[in-house]
Amino acid sequence: MNTRPKWERIQGIVLDAVGTLIEPTPSVAMAYAAAAGRQGVELAPEVVRGRFRAAFKGDLVRGEDGPLSTDEGVERRRWREIVARVLPEVPDPARAFDELWEHFARPENWRAFPDVSPALAAIHEAGLRVCIGSNFDARLHGVVAGLPELSSLVDAIVVSSEVGYRKPHAAFFRAACDRLGLPPDRVLSVGDDFENDVEGARRAGLAALALSRPGEGPVEGPSVPDLAALSGLRGAEA
Question: How do residues 206-217 score in pLDDT, each as one tens digit?
């Protein structure tokens, strides 16, 4: 089955945020290790990185509406649990959580990938609407507003804590399409998480492409190596 998007139908794009448009700077591992260090606990970043990956994958806190359901309160509780699992040695876990929650709310601790600005400009020039669709929380609005590469080139932001469901739930993608004012078959989802950004989008009726940046390993199905490749695919009929 051909799963490549039919570009003549695409009028809007939903782009994932973390790992697709932006990345933390310093890295998550460095930020967590620094929070531990401020409490006298020295942890190697590689240890923190392994713990974070294990904790992040787990559905540690669920909303009242079952798996993948969420809201702002659920996200705070979820991240509090993640911090506790990643930094079990710190004497004051509440302090570590508060510091990290605020750290990742500040746009100066994020950066856009180099391909983002030219890619978004090309997408807009082609007449497509752009929505950031993320499993972040309300903090993402402030992060995007503080990054000029994004703030002037994005038409809508949809975050799971405001929708009520995380990706890959179909309700998330319906909300993104509603914000774009387009039916699902007119929207393309692009992101670096195959289940969340590709499979979930397809099940909801959207077209989808995986983003597989160099060095991140192979992905299943149609993919692009960077966001700049999207404009080339549109011209060549992907």
Answer: 999 999 987 766
